[in-house]
Specification:
single chain, 423 residues, alpha/beta, Rossmann fold, 2 domains, eight-stranded mixed β-sheet, six-stranded parallel β-sheet, 17 helices, binds uridine-5'-diphosphate-glucuronic acid
Amino acid sequence: MSTSVAIVGTGYVGLTTGACLAHLGHRVVCADIDPDRVHTLQGGSVPFYEPGLAELVAEGTSSGRLRFVLGGAAAAADADLVFLCVPTPQADDGSVDLSYVENAARSIAAALRPGAVVVNKSTVPVGSAAIVERIIDRDDVSVVSNPEFLREGSAVSDFLHPDRVVIGADSAEAGRRVAALYQSVEAPVLVTDPASAETIKYAANAFLATKISFVNAIAAVCEAVGADIIDVVRGLGLDRRIGSEFLRPGPGWGGSCFPKDTRALVAIAESGGYDFKLLRGVIDSNAEQQARMLAKVRDALGGELAGATIAAWGLAFKANTDDVRDSPAVSIVESLVAAGACVRAYDPQATVALPGVEQVPSALDACDGADVLVVLTEWPEFIGADLGGVAARLRRRAVVDTRNVLDPGEAGRVGLRLIGVGR
Ligand code: UGA
């Protein structure tokens, strides 16, 4: 069954949702308040890097099932279901700034068709469905929560092959209509109340962040006792109760979601009178993880960062994205510069403009004239990098690999000292 859908907000969540729903056969109009962005999308370009998305946008546009318009009201007027996919940035006190969601709700309220369903897809604090309902203030319109679980870099595949679809609805009929959108997607659909759906989203991100911090802590233990994190993680992950995913140690988790959502969940808990000590500890240990990586670079340089030139591979917060929001790589690079080092950085997609950082066009270029190399993002091209070329260029022939992507055997053969995480 084909449904007419409006999407308000064309960031990676909104655009992925729109393009994928069009791919599933629905008629989709995506709206944004930024005229430049709408223009870019109408011209067939995707304004950010997300694998597979440009192809789906092209498919939707040429089939006529995907269109782009300026402003939420224009999109909402003809839609049965309207998705709010606008940013929910962090306010100064760690809580969530709901102003984009509120403005989007206000902008569509009068334009909504009788019987329309408004769907909150943005990550919003518990109770936000009720807030949107109050702003829309129409008896003939229902508000449903349908959180997204899309990872940047694999958002299209996460949308089309999800582990589950979560729908939080007070109205069973509205819940059924949202569930019907996903009819051709093979995944369990969990229908619950809005507060539970909103909590599932925060709990999932907080749990995954905790899992990574736990493994980063175990990596520190491995270093202390001479164990190898690679084998330890394999042994852990084979326990089906634990599972093997999100167990890769690294420079700490980052991105536009985990840092914001963990702090928001602490704030949400606090406002309900619960001190979420466990999650506060996870956030603190994530900051420590970055500091530990910095210390490894300092050690590789013989104890002094000031005056050193450091090659950095990776700026994005993880591979397969050009996103540098809350990127541990960027934050470590900034700390290196603050300590008096110069950084020659290479990233296949991401760019930053930072004083003291020169961005160069290739991984080997970054090593030219550098003392040591630090690998910060797990881009596939680093895995098979020419380590002989690296060794020939680095003055100190040492590499800090915060993602454990380089091959220790090969590093040894070419005379590079490889300092990994947890091994
Ligand atoms: C995350 C969630 O995985 C999505 O399910 C969720 O929908 C999304 O946030 C969101 O709330 O919008 P994303 O931020 O794109 O997705 O990135 P992840 O793949 O989850 O990675 C987050 C951070 O954890 C990155 O810095 C990554 O490098 C790090 N990480 C991940 C590790 O250090 N180790 C791992 O094993 C996995």
